[in-house]
Each structure stands twice: as C-alpha cells, then as structure tokens.
Amino acid sequence: MKTPKLILLVLAGSALALTGCTTVNSVENAQKEGQRNMIADQRAITDASLNRKVSIVGVNTAMTPGGLLKVQVELENRTRSRQAFLYHFEWFDANGMQVNNILSANIPEQIEGKESKFIYCIAPNQNCRDFRVKFIEAD
Amino acid sequence: MVAAVPAFFAGCATDAHYVQTGDKEQVVSLGQINIQDYANAANAAVKELLESGALDKVANPPALLEISRIINNTSQQVDTDLLTKKISIALLQSGKAQTKITDSKATGYQQESQFMNDQKTTRMPDFTLSGKIIETVDRAGSTRRTTYSFQLSLNDPKQGVQVWEGEKEIGKQGTRSSVGF
Predict the structure, then answer these.
(1) pLDDT value of residue B4
(2) Contact B180 A139 (CB under 8 A)
(3) B25 secondary structure, DSSP code
(4) Chain B environment of A138 (Cβ under 8 Å)
(5) Which residues in chain B have their CB less than 8 angstroms from residue A126's CB?
(6) What number is the ipTM of this complex?
(7) Confidence band (pLDDT; 50, 70, 90) for B137?
(8) Which of A21, A38, A108, B65 has its CA 20 to 30 A from that of A4?
(9) pLDDT digit string, tens, across residues A56-75
(10) Which residue ranges make up each domain of chain A?
(11) What's A38-137's CATH class?
(12) Angle, nearest 10°, between helix axes B35-52 and B81-94?
C-alpha cells in the first residue's frame, strides 16, 4: 500500500519540477550576412550565482546614424528555468567621467531556459566613449 | 529566549528607508502604473528614437520639439509628465533636440522680444510628440494580468507625416501586488 503512495508522490514532485522549466528552441541563418564588431570586455563578477545562471556571451558595438555609440550584449541562460534580473548601463566620456543620464534606472529583464538574448543601449550623447553594464539578480 | 522574541518580530517589520527607483525592492502593483514603468517606457522610447536617426533629419539641428497630448486610456488618473518629462530631458541631454517653452512667463518675454525686434515669425517646431497609454486587463480565476501599452509618435507638422512611432508594453501578472521584481 505504501509503494503506490510513494510513486504518486514522486510523480507529483516530478510534475511540479517540470512545470518550472521552459527552454527555448531556435533557428537562424548559417551563412551570416552581418558582421558583428565584437569588442574585448573586462568583467567583474561578484555574484557568482547569477553568472552561473545568466552568462555574458559577448559584447559588440556600432554607431547610430546620429553618431551615438550603441552597445549590444549577448546573454545566455545556462539553466533550464526562467531567470529574472535587472540591468543598467553607465556611460563615461573621454576623460573617464560618468555621464549624467536621466534614464539610468534598472531595467527588468527575463530570459527563458537555455535562451540566448540580446540587450542593448544607446549612449545618452555623443561625448560617451566607454560604458559599463551592471547586472543584479532578482529575488 | 525573552530576548529572541522581540528580535524575531523586529525581523518581520520593515522600517522606512530610502530606496532607488527601479531597485530590487520595488513595489509591483497589478492595477496601477508604477514609477519604474514610466522609466522603462521612457527608456525604450528614447533608445528607439535616437537609434532611428529621425531627429537628425532637420535643416537646423538640434530639432525643435513640442510635447503634444498624451491620451490616457487607463482606469487611473495619470500625470503624463512622468513619461514625457523623462523623454524630453533625455533628448535635451543627447543634444539631438530642444523642447519648446511651455512656461507662460517665458512665452511672454519671447513675444515682447519679437515685438521689440520687429520679428514677425516664430520658429515652428520641427516635430511634435504625441501618444497614448492603454490598459488591458485579463483575468483567469484569481489571477489578473494587466498590460500597459505606451504608444508614442513623432510627427512632422511641416510634412504632415509621422516620422517615428514606438510602443512599449509592460505586463504584470499575479493575484495581488507585491514587493520585488
């Protein structure tokens, strides 16, 4: 009598565990037309837990038609479950001084299991030369 | 044991403290637009607008922008300046646009100056920014999903065309409002 109960419990547990996992399948063109200008990045990882779950694949930059620096960061969710995090961009001028930006608030973002996702930002003005992106894990 | 009891209860209470807009402790309201929602909508709009290069296509840069009407189609009273002010500040900081004065005193001085200098024309804005905020509510049992759509258009009054349009949807789902993202 105990065995069927145990099996039911295990099945219920497995079902619960599986509902939390949603992974993403994707397809893309193999012969790429566009060329990404990948840049060397410098990382400071203080939250190893977040880094294990959502990792930075690469960073590339481009200029907008109006001469503003555009930065794109590719992220990958290494886990099989949805992850939520906050990010924000900081910008610096040619002297390394931080540029005041009204829109520097944290942006909430979600990424599905095993998904690869891009986030991007446009420099607040033409004086911006460098940038830093901060990631914070949501509770 | 006696000391542990107050310590336990103190851990449950939340004392008032300063917070940053958009931090991890933000209040997420189901039936209300939160301050971080305006910030996110403004952020998305400015990013798309600057990326499009629409503001660069004027004869005398920076472009002169006039903030027009933002229609509120939600069930709540909204001060649309929470959205438009962030956008106009960001555009001014970018050097790509200047906004037309709305202050009555400044307008009076401008008219006086034009009269004294025998100036008969006022510079027309290159663009106007208009928009709409729409609320959609879906329910399934006790779960409620509220979506706020922030729609914005950059209009060229000289050509009579919309040169840029953007939309940011912010969705929230749950059974009650909560703290945290």
Answers:
(1) 54
(2) yes
(3) T
(4) 24, 180-181
(5) 95
(6) 0.82
(7) very high
(8) A21
(9) 999 999 999 999 999 999 99
(10) 38-137
(11) mainly beta
(12) 40
